[in-house]
Amino acid sequence: VDLAIRGGTVVTQDAARRILRADIGIEGNRIRAVGVVPRAEVEIDATGSLVLPGLVNLHTHAAMTLLRGAADDLPLEQWLRERVWPIESKLTESDVRAGVRVALAEMAAGGTTTFNDMYFFAGACAEETAKAGLRGAMGPPFIDATTPEMPPSDILGAARAFARRWSGHDHVIPTIPVHSAYAVSEQGLAQAALLRRETGARIHAHLHETRAEVYETVGHYQARPFEIFSKAGLVERSIFAHGGWLTKGELETMAQAGSSLAHCPVSNFKLATGGWVALPEFWDAGGTAGLGTDGAASNNTLDMFETMKFAALSQKQHRWDATVAPAQKVLDMATRDGAKALGLDAGAIEVGRLADLIVVRGDRAHLTPRNDPVSLLVYAARASDVSHTIVNGRVVYENGLHPTLDVEAALDDAAVRSEALQGR
Ligand SMILES: [Zn+2]
Fold first, then answer.
1. Core-most of 119, 151, 393, 415, by most CB within 10 Å?
2. Is the whole model's pTM more than 0.90, yes or no?
3. How far apart are CA 139 and CA 141, in angstroms?
4. How many Å lie between the centroid of ligand 1 and the Cα of residue 266?
5. Region 272-294: what's the mean pLDDT?
6. 4-35: b (≥16 Cβ within 10 Å) or e
7. Ligand 1 centroid to 40 CA: how many Å?
């Protein structure tokens, strides 16, 4: 084997959710052995640590790290229209690259191996992601506004070219981001549906995030955003972010259509979006829900450990029921369910799966004693406890070092660009 991880407690996240004391052998980009592993080219000593599948951030806007802290303590509509969109209108492709590099560094160091993105200059994001060796799902987003990248009339052509360029790539999964029912015209939705028929790529959209979004859309189009997506033929096998204002009936229809939810509890809390996604009913209907951080302008980190804890706690508090959203189910959301939503052969440590996994150090006071590894990961661990992040069989983060990314240069560049952007 090329890479061996030895001596760790392996939280496999397989069908039986087994937790094993085992070595892991990786050959190329796949897991080849779980158990006894021969000597490898690269050896990682995970004694005393937890080994688990890499985390999947199912909804983010990576480049928005540049806007971290640029607009806090505002309701979503005002935050978007008065602060975020005016700053974004001045973004350049180089700015987006700089923001994406910071996001890649933060995600790799925090155990995220795959992210599902939505932002303009997706080509630049794809190139940076491939260089850094993480996995990203993305594409040029459909939106009815002239972005710094292109006018709406160019999006279909650009999205076709993106899908062709990145189809089958190890690190980039082409998707069809559709901003939302309120920011995309009927024609844009029809183009997205056409592109999905041509490429089979997944739709990724914001849906029912706030009450205002739902009722303003009803006022304008006499239909709820979910109905608009349904009529456009966009609810099969899609990924919908937020969903706090979806009815239980809408969630059931979504589950039956094989669409997934990307639940973003931290961003929802910060923007005070109100309504809370009915996960128990969605699960009962057979739905798959993953977890997202959303962008760093509304979170303000890309920390999936914090997101897991928020997801569990917020459901319990909302339902007055501590048994709702147990730790094991929430860890599933961040690993195997997120991978399933993207159609990615990862999310569990099993022979044959893609080698996307992380090591979490156990030698910390807040991770002692180890009564239940799953409880520790969801309720006690922090992103800074990650010691190793491996994507596609390659180490992309190891004890503070990023072998695939010049982090010092990335952070300096982002700081300079963010300041210039605010003044532009
Ligand atoms: Zn978002």
1. 119
2. yes
3. 6
4. 12
5. 96
6. bbbebbbbbbbeeeebbebbbbbeebebbbbe
7. 41
